[in-house]
Structure formats: C-alpha cells, structure tokens
C-alpha cells in the first residue's frame, strides 16, 4: 500500500475535453488517467485513479487512501468550498499534492481561496495535465507521512 498513489478528481472533471478547451485543454479524463498511469509506472508505483461528482464520496476516497504513498487531489469546485474535504485530509494524515489544470489565480476571485492548500504538502496549478505528472514525481521522491 505505501507504494500506491491515489489520484482523486472532483466534480465535472469527467467532462474534460468536451467543453471550455481554452481553460482546461483538450485532454479527456481518460488521457489524464493514462498520463498518471505512465508516470506511476516509471516510478514503479501502483495507482488508484478515481473521479466523483459527490463531496461525500471524495471524503470516502480520501479515507480509503490511508496507508498509501500519497494523494494527487484535484477537488475541482470543492477546493473552494469544502471543509469536509479539508478535514478528511487532516484525518488521514497523508501527503496530498493539490493540482489544478488552470491557473486559478488568473481567474475569478472566488477561485483564489482553497480549503485544501493549508493541509496540502504542495500545490501545482496552471500547467494543465502536466501538473498531475509533476505531482506524482513529487510523491515518488517525498519520504514518509505528515505527522
Ligand atoms: O483548474 C482546475 O483544475 C479546477 O480545479 C477545475 C474546476 C474549477 O472549479 C476549479 O476552480 C479549478 C472545474 C472543473 C470543471 O471541469 C470542466 C471540464 C470540462 C468542461 C467544463 C468543466
């Protein structure tokens, strides 16, 4: 289990590649999964890749990531609203790398605040699908858990 990375995706990310390509690019969620799988394989890490449109389900996914190497989390809109997701990250005590495809700081003011960032090890935004790969590289080399 410590050799598994969980890649968790929040609401509407299942629609990637179908709308707003100027914001989110042309990659589909299947492309994101394939890129993550290749990155994990390079580091000989197993991967669990999940997407949900439901806040509580994302909380469950985080709880199920206990014991893993870490979590790459794009909580999508819940980033900006969810105390429950922040609490779950604290509760599981894992390394979480927060990822956003778009540069949230170049967008609307409501996207500038994240409930996830204060409980994340690091944050990557604005680099598109590449951000997921960078987050996996970071988890592959980051040692241990957050105590
Ligand atoms: O940039 C990101 O990755 C975001 O997490 C994406 C979220 C947004 O609420 C965050 O502020 C930033 C939105 C994901 C919605 O994805 C769509 C994909 C295709 C078409 C429409 C929405």
Automatic annotation (TrEMBL):
Class in the EC hierarchy, top level: lyase
Keywords: Amino-acid biosynthesis, Aromatic amino acid biosynthesis, Lyase
Catalytic activity from the UniProt record: 3-dehydroquinate = 3-dehydroshikimate + H2O
InterPro entries linked: DHquinase_II (IPR001874), DHquinase_II_CS (IPR018509), DHquinase_II_sf (IPR036441)
A Gene Ontology molecular function term of the record: 3-dehydroquinate dehydratase activity
Superkingdom classification of source: Bacteria
Active-site annotation: 24, 100
GO biological process, one term: amino acid biosynthetic process
Residues that coordinate or bind substrate: 74, 80, 87, 101-102, 111
Site feature (Transition state stabilizer) residues: 19
EC number: 4.2.1.10
PROSITE patterns: DEHYDROQUINASE_II
Annotated metabolic or biological route of this protein: Metabolic intermediate biosynthesis; chorismate biosynthesis; chorismate from D-erythrose 4-phosphate and phosphoenolpyruvate: step 3/7
Protein family according to the UniProt entry: Belongs to the type-II 3-dehydroquinase family.
UniProt-listed HAMAP family: AroQ
Summary of the function given for this chain in its UniProt record: Catalyzes a trans-dehydration via an enolate intermediate.
Assembly description: Homododecamer.
Name used for this protein in its record: 3-dehydroquinate dehydratase
Organism: Ancylobacter aquaticus
Gene name of this polypeptide: aroQ
